[in-house]
Amino acid sequence: MRTKPDQEPTNDRKRKFDDELVTQVEEEFGQSYHCNGCSKDITNLVRVRCAECTDFDLCVTCFSSGVEPENTQHRNFHKYRVMEMLDFAIFDDNWGADEELKLVTAIEHYGLGNWEQVAEQVGSKNRLECAEHYQRMYIQSDTFPMPDMSRRIDRNSRLSHSPPRKVPKHDRPPVSQPACHEIHGYMPGRREFETEWENDAEIMIKDLEFCDSDTPEDTELKMAMFSMYNAALDRRAERKKFVLDRGIVDFKKVQQTEKKRQKDEKDLYQKMRVFAKMQTGQDFEDFVGGLLTEMKLREEIARLQEYRRMGLRDRKEIDVYERDKRDREVAKSHHHHPHSYNTPRSRATPTLSGRPTPAPSSIPASTLTPTATPQPPSLPPQPSSSSSSLAAAAAGQQLGSSSTSAQPAPAGLRKPAAPLDISAAEGLDLLTHNEQILCANLRLFPKSYLVIKDTILKEFTRNGSLRRRECRQLIKIDVNKTSRIYDFFVEMGWVRSKPVGK
């Protein structure tokens, strides 16, 4: 339904454009429209017009609901036309179709040259822009007094051929600012989120009104909708309390905590997360902590059972077995990488069966420490105080790449990673030459090694001694790297282990 304004433009001298859409809207220019179903003003909205009824318009909401107003002949199965907004360009990118209609209608009403009144009627353009546009598009047109219809901008083709929009790059927030604002839109001052849980819950009740003419069924329906809305608010409050009580909005703290966890711990937390909503934050942490303790105890029991199946009966035999196993792994790696970290025991170490571990023939003679001699098979392994495994590794590194290329890697063995180049690493000048070689072979950066060294020495100073097992529990990295660092510290005299009987 349309209502006429106080001052309707004259239609005596209207030009008839060839464009059907422009002609149709030109006849309706200056009108305001209201929905025949809910009486809402839809002048500046997309509306649906019945093609069979006279002067009958519906808003999109009433049309989608199939409204059939009383005292009208309209039915929801009638043919219809969608009347879109005229905010798209037809002749000029800077002029919409609605502005074109306002321009020509104002010129017809006020006369050519009264650009002040014309601009006031158009509203969005000044008098100079109106005069320039009419001069360029209408008067200077090859089809004067009609505009050049071949220049009409096709809205669909313009959209399909438009260049892709450039996504603005968001600068990373400074370290001093909380990153949670850009992640989930949390506003700490209001303790609210930019997008709440079930953010559209208010939409279903925003237009509800209780009227005296409501039937009991209508009142019951509206009360049911309010009950649904209250349930949505309860779910929203429950989830907000869950997030805030557990400090999940503190993204940096959560991220640092996740980094400290081992892979098996992360997997366990991920599996048990479904039970978090049934417990408080502290109860959930205690629950998962108990499961982690149980998992570690099971692993320790399985390891001890494996030792028992191999005939190992006390801690002394276990230490000998672990040392021999580590030496065999080192000797095996020398078959295809002579520059790796080496120990004197790896060249001749009696195993549990009484047979010594043979030295790999592929190790060049120059990589052996001159003062180190192989131990006899009948004697137990003795630590060599005059030789250093790092000296052997340093001598091997001085050979260059010729010795490595001369010895092809045996088939079936995976080539180990090459030593890490730490020549430009930060903190290199704080290490001794032997420590630099150790870091290169273990592929550790100097700063990481210094943190490990500081942790081990502090623990040793506090307790007066440090066992290999305690060192592994203290340093959460690869156990082989931890063992080699521990051996290096013992060999350098920085750390000593506890007596076996203690």
From TrEMBL:
What GO terms describe the biological role, i.e. biological process, of this protein? chromatin remodeling; regulation of transcription by RNA polymerase II
InterPro entries, per the entry? ADA2-like_ZZ, Ada2/TADA2, Homeodomain-like_sf, Myb_dom, SANT/Myb, SANT_dom, SWIRM, TADA2A_B-like_dom
| UniProt-annotated location(s) | Nucleus
Q: Which Gene3D superfamilies match?
A: 3.30.60.90, Homeodomain-like, Winged helix-like DNA-binding domain superfamily/Winged helix DNA-binding domain
Output the lineage of the source organism: Eukaryota, Fungi, Fungi incertae sedis, Chytridiomycota, Chytridiomycota incertae sedis
Concerning SMART domains, the annotation shows: SANT, ZnF_ZZ
Query: Quick one: where's region Disordered?
Result: 145-179, 326-415
Q: Composition bias, kind Polar residues: at what positions?
A: 340-354
SWIRM domain sequence ranges = 411-502
This entry carries the following GO cellular component terms, namely: nucleus; SAGA-type complex
Q: Which residues form the HTH myb-type domain?
A: 94-142
Q: What Pfam families has UniProt attached to this entry?
A: Myb_DNA-binding (PF00249), SWIRM (PF04433), TADA2A-like_3rd (PF22941), ZZ_ADA2 (PF25299)
**Domain SANT: from-to ranges:** 90-142
Q: Where is the composition biased (Low complexity)?
A: 360-372, 384-406
Q: Where is the composition biased (Pro residues)?
A: 373-383
Q: Write the record's keywords in alphabetical order, separated by commas.
A: Metal-binding, Nucleus, Transcription, Transcription regulation, Zinc, Zinc-finger
Recorded source organism is Powellomyces hirtus
GO molecular function terms noted in the UniProt entry: chromatin binding; transcription coactivator activity; zinc ion binding
For this protein, the record's SUPFAM superfamilies field holds:
Homeodomain-like, RING/U-box
Please state what the protein is called: Transcriptional adapter 2
Annotated Myb-like domain ranges read 94-138
Q: Which residues are in the ZZ-type domain?
A: 30-88
